[in-house]
Design goal:
The protein is mainly alpha-helical. The protein is 62% helix and 3% strand.
């Protein structure tokens, strides 16, 4: 059986057989087709630079007039020159277990988005189509349940995943889906300092200053899938984690907006999880029981 051909969008002047050569190459993301190149170099364990997206390439062109001119007039391959000028750090391809875990997490997120869309349609649907929507939602829930079992089995069968999951789930507010997402899409967790891990997730405030203008600090960039899961985890953590609950209440009492206070708690949570994996210690915070939460809300 013949191998899958490389589409023209990532085709080079060299033959396909030469792509397995262990050398540095320059690529940009091309609607998932770059995975063909990853598979061709996976057997030789080639380290490759991270594939830049369009925003990264555009930012690089704005910071380098020669790159912008080359891209504008087509004088030289832009992603190739971006790699030569910026010299991105080489990264090893993920191992098979991590790739499988990422695929399961990605598929689960897709099904959750599909189910949310169908549930929103069901609210305004007529009786003639509501039965079909209900059947699709029921099918999606079964598929999500199957994926949850596969994720749990994969984490139990992989010692490195199991150890990280046990540490992460010891923190109040972090459940099985959040811990699996962090393991799959945030492999740097536990290896970076607090500033870098916050910036990588996208919860670090960046300035927007220009000359004498002092703009408002805001979060920017980062890994959207991880940040979305961390947001849902923080919603539970500010109710179950005593330190985060006190931190959130202190920010709200100081006049911070609800979203700003929650974003600050997201940063505090990811920094805490990063320290837990770095030191190998479980979270020492005791979960607040639901009865205590209800009693506190009634008293206020």
């Amino acid at each position: 059986m013949s191998s899958t051909p490389i589409p023209p969008s990532i085709r080079t002047s060299e033959p396909h057989s030469a792509l397995s050569a262990p050398r540095r190459r320059r690529w940009s993301r091309s609607h998932g087709y770059h995975r063909l190149y990853n598979r061709s170099t996976r057997t030789v364990g080639t380290a490759r630079p991270p594939l830049p997206d369009d925003r990264t390439l555009h930012s690089g062109s704005c910071s380098n007039s020669r790159m912008d001119g080359l891209h504008r007039f087509g004088a030289e391959p832009w992603p190739s020159h971006f790699a030569e000028v910026m010299k991105p750090e080489l990264r090893r391809l993920p191992d098979p277990e991590t790739r499988k875990l990422r695929a399961l997490i990605t598929r689960r997120n897709q099904l959750v988005r599909m189910m949310t869309a169908e549930q929103n349609r069901q609210l305004q649907a007529l009786e003639s189509v509501r039965a079909g929507l209900t059947a699709i939602i029921r099918c999606l829930k079964k598929q999500i349940a199957v994926l949850d079992k596969q994720l749990a089995a994969l984490i139990r069968a992989t010692p490195a995943f199991r150890q990280k999951a046990e540490l992460l789930r010891s923190a109040p507010g972090v459940g099985p889906v959040v811990s699996a997402t962090l393991i799959a899409h945030l492999a740097e967790l536990g290896t970076l300092n607090r500033k870098k891990i916050a910036a990588l997730v996208g919860v670090a405030p960046f300035n927007r200053d220009s000359g004498r203008l002092k703009g408002k600090r805001a979060i920017w960039g980062g890994r959207g899938d991880v940040r979305a899961m961390l947001y849902m985890s923080t919603l539970a953590a500010v109710r179950l984690n005593p330190s985060l609950r006190a931190f959130h209440s202190r920010l709200r009492s100081a006049g911070k907006s609800p979203k700003m206070a929650l974003t600050a708690c997201m940063r505090k949570l990811v920094v805490m999880l990063n320290a837990m994996l770095k030191t190998g210690n479980r979270c020492s915070e005791e979960r607040i029981r639901p009865v205590e939460i209800i009693s506190a809300e009634v008293s206020t």
